[in-house]
Design goal:
556 residues, five-stranded antiparallel beta sheet, alpha+beta, 57% helix, single chain, YidE_YbjL, four-stranded antiparallel beta sheet
Length: 556
């Protein structure tokens, strides 16, 4: 039976794979358990690795380093790829305020960490580990470790201590944000969780207008649109008791009724252009039967699945004039976009199309509309992105006044390339779409492997570090870094920026990269506003944290 002992105990490729798999499986299972309604999820893999290492489990160091780094690269690139399509659109309009507030959380926490480093004897590298744990941001930890080793390649102990500090502060980060949410709700006596008028103003909105402005009588829709700097989609037109799909050449007449898709903030501009808003029907009800508006017209969602359409401008297809249909909405990565002629279509987009059944079916054939095609993985974009991201992260960037060149590293490079590929890949006709389940699978797999390797690498001295004076100080600092920035910016957002509770807590959870706290926040409101706010600020927040962690260690 010596061969069993040899396989399980002697460091080798096989033993490393077995240990990583067992640690990952145990951690994933434990992550399903809840304590007082709170679960740490896959983060339990990290602590399972720590326990295994504490009890003497050893693995091949080179194999462990490769698995840990590759897991981080895969996780952070697919994360960028997933948020890329909505990254830049989330910075517009209502997202600007939320992102600025989230940056306040990020920079306030960073300044606190720097101040505490100056006021205590804790090394900057350990403080970055505490900050990474307090904000539950393992990509930030990976980036900080890479930056530390870039400055001092022989400082393996510093990288290990950084991971220990992160492990100490991580549970406090989860609990701290949840406590901050509870405090904010009590302090401001939250009763109503509905979105504020300003937030609703940025959502897609459908309204009915009566053409009564003499300035547009006899003008085509195209000519009328040139009279305003806002963009509207005229979905249907009522004339002489009949409903029809207008084209850009359709002439507007006095008394026409128009069904217009825009955003609520632009209703006043639409009223000024067309003349008068009608209130006979609420066209924004969730249960409205669009197909019942006219027996000859149908409304259908069509998927873009043809690679030839990837990156093509919507206006260049001339679908309205050629097929007599109208595209009222485009949904991309869960975000509704206005069907602007300048919008570049991407594989995976969902288009809401209105028109006669035969015409809608023909447009479906043109765009693809074959859901099975989306199930096929686009591995080309994955491997190209990984290669380019790692290469970008390895490029030394010289900054005046700094003796050591800055590198984005294996965390900064892949997330930048992932975001850019997700946002602009289709414009160079590179299909970057992956199904949500496929992306989640790759993301979770990479994260689990990274956390398992991190725990095994840093767990040998974890408990002896925690149960001493220095460890208790780490606990106190980690809790302060988790809760103080959240409370301060949450108060500012409510008191001075007039952000409603639902969007406020979603923004705070996103800025702290804390999905566990988001799950709790969702139980305190009726709608999905916290999730929307979380998705709005999460990409920029995680990107800024990854980059700032590296810059701080390289500069200071």
């Amino acid at each position: 039976m010596n061969w069993i002992q040899e396989i399980l105990c002697q460091p080798s490729v096989i033993q490393t794979v077995i240990v990583l798999s067992v640690v990952s499986a145990a951690g994933v299972y434990l992550g399903k358990l809840k304590f007082f309604g709170i679960s740490l999820g896959v983060t339990f893999v990290f602590f399972t690795g720590i326990v295994a290492s504490h009890f003497g489990v050893k693995v091949n160091h080179d194999m462990l380093a490769f698995a840990q780094n590759f897991g981080l690269i895969l996780f952070i690139y697919t994360l960028g790829l997933q948020v890329g399509p909505g990254f830049f659109s989330s910075l517009k309009k209502g997202g600007v305020k939320l992102n600025m507030l989230s940056m306040g959380v990020v920079f306030l926490g960073t300044l606190m960490a720097l101040a505490l480093t100056w006021a205590t004897d804790i090394p900057l590298s350990d403080m970055m580990g505490l900050l990474s744990g307090a904000v539950t941001n393992t990509p930030m930890l990976g980036a900080a470790q890479q930056a530390l080793l870039q400055v001092d390649p022989d400082n393996a102990k510093g990288a290990t201590d950084m991971a220990l500090a992160c492990a100490v502060a991580y549970p406090l980060g989860v609990i701290g944000v949840i406590l901050a949410i509870i405090v904010l709700k009590k302090v401001f006596n939250v009763q109503d969780s509905k979105a504020s008028p300003k937030e609703n103003a940025t959502k897609t909105y459908v309204a009915e207008f009566l053409v009564s402005n003499p300035a547009i009588f006899g003008k085509s829709i195209k000519e009328a649109m040139h009279m305003t700097d806002r963009h509207f989609v005229i979905s249907r037109i009522w004339r002489d008791g009949k409903v029809r799909i207008p084209t850009s050449d359709t002439l507007l007449q006095k008394g026409d009724k128009l069904l217009v898709v825009s955003v609520k903030a632009d209703v006043e501009n639409a009223t000024a252009l067309f003349g008068e808003q009608e209130y006979e029907e609420d066209w924004n009800k969730e249960d409205i039967d669009w197909n019942a508006i006219d027996s000859q017209l149908i409304s259908r969602r069509i998927l873009v699945t043809r690679n030839k359409i990837n990156g093509v401008k919507l206006g260049s297809l001339r679908l309205r004039n050629l097929y007599g249909i109208n595209i009222t909405r485009v949904n991309r990565a869960g975000i509704d976009l206005l069907a602007s002629p300048d919008l570049h279509l991407q594989v995976g987009d969902k288009l809401t199309i209105v028109g006669e059944a035969n015409s809608v079916n023909n447009v479906g054939k043109l765009l693809g509309d074959e859901a099975k095609r989306l199930n096929k993985p686009n591995l080309l974009a994955i491997f190209i992105g990984l290669a380019v991201g790692v290469f970008l992260g390895a490029i030394p960037l010289s900054i005046p006044g700094m003796s050591t060149p800055v590198k984005l590293g294996i965390a900064g490079g892949p997330i930048i390339v992932g975001i850019l590929m997700g946002a602009f890949g289709p414009r160079i006709h590179l299909t970057t779409y992956t199904t949500e389940s496929a992306n989640l699978m790759m993301r979770e797999f990479g994260l689990v492997i990274y956390l398992a390797g991190l725990g095994l690498d840093s767990g040998e001295h974890f408990f002896e570090t925690v149960f001493r004076t220095e460890g208790l100080i780490w606990v106190a600092i980690g809790f302060a870094l988790a809760i103080v920035p959240v409370l301060i910016m949450g108060w500012i957002a409510t008191k001075f920026c007039k952000v409603d509770y639902a969007h406020n807590v979603g923004m705070l959870c996103g800025s702290m990269a804390n999905p566990m706290a988001l799950n709790y926040a969702n139980t305190t409101v009726a709608g999905d506003e916290p999730s929307v706010a979380y998705a709005t600020v999460y990409p920029l927040s995680i990107f800024v944290r990854v980059i700032t962690a590296q810059l701080i260690l390289l500069v200071f």
